[in-house]
Amino acid sequence: MASVEFRHCCKTYPPRAHGPATEVLKAIDLTIADGEFLVLVGPSGCGKTTLLRLLAGLESLSAGDVLVGGQSVGHLAPAQRNVAMVFQSYALYPHLSVAQNLAFGLRRSRRRRLLHSLQDGLACATTSWPSPLRVPSRREEAIQARIREVAAMLDLNGLLERQPRQLSGGQKQRVALGRAIARQPAVFLMDEPLSNLDAKLRGETRLAIARLQRQLGTTTIYVTHDQVEAMTMGHRIAVLHQGELQQVGTPRQLYSQPINLFVAQFIGHPPMNLLPVTPTATGLMLEGQVLHLSKSLRAAMAQHTRPIATVGIRAESFMVAAPQTGEASPGPHGLAARVVAIEDLGHEHLLGCRLAAGGHLVQVRVSADLPVQVGDHLSISPHHRACHLFDNQGKALLAHGA
Questions:
Q1: Angle (deg, nearest 10), helices 199-216 and 169-182
Q2: Which CATH architecture has domain 271-391?
Q3: Beta strand spans in 231-334 (E)
Q4: Helices (DSSP H) in 26-107: which residue ranges?
């Protein structure tokens, strides 16, 4: 186990066909503590997988350095970095059994003398022979013990003699995880390992990975697009966008205190509602409708040098009045809206509401008990302490009012 540190890491691909060079990562500074589970999120092409590959040694740095356990690994070959990577496509050897796949990295962890290699090979080949005829090998005995340990950990005991083509997607992913675990590396790297699984298997495997990481205590960097995986698995989340690190923090910090508009929109499902506003003496104005703010937010606005341009409101931060048959009156603090879509999620409803002020579409989370239909008129009131304010450059003023 070891900490991981990216120091001012840059990655640029050379130009093609006389075009410009492609800058994939821009001066990334990031530290992952020993034993931490860090989740990397961001849109496709933002540099998440490239960052993993730089650590694994599958890509070379254009500038900067990568440290594992305080030691620079930029000059080391991939096999010498003591990291194990789990790929999206499983990357199992199709001609090897599950047991052989699990043992593959163990048998190639270090070079052996020819005589020892021959002895290990004979020991492996005579495993199924009667005990008096087997060729002994301490190394093979240790490998077999490790395979049994990992198989028990991942419930693979009944699958050890099967080949990958005889396994389901979930079983293949467990074998891929087992191959990484068997080596006992200092760092686990996981590149969207659950993306090929169905919803049920994703949930089961997600819980298994989180449990294993807690059990093993191995530093883990996990890449995903999935909001549920990011919010439930990681100790911290790092958000990347266009090769730049946007924000790093706990899931709760990123959800309730986004540092800019990109993080506000990217973290959370549904995305945060963003509305264009203009500041007034008492709060904000949305298309002629007043939005009241807490005293602390108004005080922060008064001290901020750039004007507020956007207010962000989470779907659950609206208070909803009972549906009306006629057009709703906005009330002193509410916004008149008409329901244009309803997503029934079982335990709750997600309403798509068209605001009378400016025709903006917002999403509102309500109880499944609320009697509401498409076409109903509502008065929705954003809680004055739950507004997120962003200036005209997209920077958060005070991410969550107190």
A1: 10
A2: Beta Barrel (2.40)
A3: 236-241, 244-249, 273-276, 278-279, 283-286, 289-292, 308-313, 318-320
A4: 48-56, 98-107
Q: Quick check: 378 and 352 in contact, CB under 8 A?
A: no
Summarised one tens digit per residue, pLDDT across range 6-31 is 999 999 998 887 778 889 999 999 99
What is the rounded CA–CA span in Å between residue 249 and residue 239?
A: 9
**Residue 400 binned pLDDT confidence (cut-offs 50, 70, 90):** very low
Contact 369, 402 (CB under 8 A): no
Res. 110: pLDDT tops 60: no
Type of residue numbered 343: E
How many Å is the Cα radius of gyration of the chain? 27
In whole numbers, what is the pLDDT of the chain averaged over residues? 86
Model confidence pLDDT, tens digit, residues 323-343: 665 555 555 557 889 999 999
Looking at residue 134, its amino acid is R
Q: Which residues pair with 312 in a beta bridge?
A: 274, 388
Interacting residues of 5 by C-beta distance below 8 A, sequence separation 6+: 30, 31, 32, 66, 67, 70
Q: What is the pTM of this model?
A: 0.85
- The strand pair at 308-313 and 273-276 is best described as antiparallel
Alpha helices in 273-327 (DSSP H): 295-303
Domain parsing of the chain, residue ranges: 271-391
pLDDT above 80 for 254:
yes
Per-residue confidence at 288, pLDDT binned at 50, 70, 90? confident
Q: One-letter amino acid identity for 246?
A: Q
pLDDT at residue 37, rounded to an integer: 96
CA angle, residues 56, 62, 65, in degrees to nearest 5: 55
For the record, the structure tokens of 40 come out as 């990397």
